[in-house]
Amino acid sequence: MRKVVASEFLTLDGVMGLPERWNLAYFNDEMGRAIGEGFAAADAMLMGRVLYEEWAAFWPQQDPQENPFAAQMNSMQKYVVSTTLEQPLGWENSTLINGNVAEEIAELKRGEGGDIVISGSGTLVRSLLRLGLLDELKLMVHPILVGGGKRLFEEGERQAKLELADSKTFSTGVLYLTYRPAGD
């Protein structure tokens, strides 16, 4: 059975939005290796419409000779959850999920293959956690307060118990925390 694994950059005050404004000062080889290991364990990505549109405009334009990660991103199977996009999707190996999201993702999990990774797409992560379809939540918590922005968990979210499965501290002070849903 495949796992759905969300990997997110966060600030200490819980902001995930616009990481390009605050995470680059903390990015180093340790973080790069951790991200690479996560993608190496995966053979598919799951994303919402906004992230899909951003990445579909960026990754196909990257030269794999200059950015080896581009080849992996472009060749990996991508599942896009959206009620507004229509088939066919323009980025190679992209499939639209717009019906019964819970049922379709549960079916993907029952299939053969590696992990299904989510990066960004906070609304999707919250939804999958509520539905019991998220297997791991990997957070790279940056030692910075930004004071406002899009948060991973919004006010009014239903309580969800998680258990810490692993933790690391990078030399930049970034905490790399892996959580799994805890039993009731």
CATH class: Alpha Beta
Q: What's the N-to-C terminus distance?
A: 22 Å
**The CATH topology is what?**
Dihydrofolate Reductase, subunit A
Question: What fraction of residues sit in β-strands?
Answer: 25-35%
Number of helical regions: 5
Helix content: 25-40%
CATH architecture: 3-Layer(aba) Sandwich
Mean pLDDT: 93
Give the number of domains. 1
For this structure, what is the CATH homologous superfamily? Dihydrofolate Reductase, subunit A
| Secondary structural class | alpha/beta
Give the overall silhouette: globular
Uncertain runs are none
Provide the succession of SSEs. EHEHHEEHEHEEE
How would you characterize the overall build of this protein?
This protein has helices at 29-40, 49-58, 68-75, 101-110, 122-131; strands at 4-11, 42-48, 77-81, 94-97, 115-119, 136-142, 162-169, 175-181. It is of the alpha/beta class and 184 residues long. It has a single domain, classed as Dihydrofolate Reductase, subunit A. It has an eight-stranded mixed beta sheet. A hairpin with a 5-residue loop joins β7 and β8 (175-181). The radius of gyration is 16 Å and the shape is globular. The protein starts with a strand and ends with a strand.
